[in-house]
Hints:
Helix content: under 10%
Oligomer: single chain
Largest sheet: 7 strands, mixed
Shape: globular
Strand content: 35-45%
Distance between the termini: 15 Å
Number of strands: 12
Strand order of the largest sheet: 1-4-11-6-7-9-8
Radius of gyration: 15 Å
Amino acid sequence: KETDGFPVNWQNENGRNEARAREAYKVQAEQDRGFLAVRNADQRIKNKKIEWDPKAKPVLTWRWRLHKAPAEADPIAVIYVALDTDLLFIPVFTKYIWSGTKPEGTVTEGGMFSGSEIVAQSGLGPTEWVEERVNVYEDFKRIHKHEPAEKAWGISLFASPGVEVDFGPI
């Protein structure tokens, strides 16, 4: 982590308020296990250095836990996985979401500038750590109907306003 607690090799996305991102996303530790505490973010951060071959390493795992979310927050939290770009070099991504309203397993097709969603968790109540394991390669092929690029473009994180959520190692 950087001196202010912001995660190393991450940056706020879309040129939004850098100071607010650095305040909302903080690396913390609990029982010698690191995690990213996200408090009232309302903006995405992305990892600047992550790159891998999704065909050779198709499984993505992470942990997350919800502390609180307002009833109107949907999605509550999101992990964006970008495995390709379109003809304009805009990332093509799949969003793994924690939804306050949609049941687990719900898939929503994305639009021109919106990634397709897969609901990984559902509910508004506080939770203990929940572990996720998804095959991003197979999900990408099923949803986007083509092979991803040879190298993944990266991972982004988001939490809605008023949400308190923690992300464990991804």
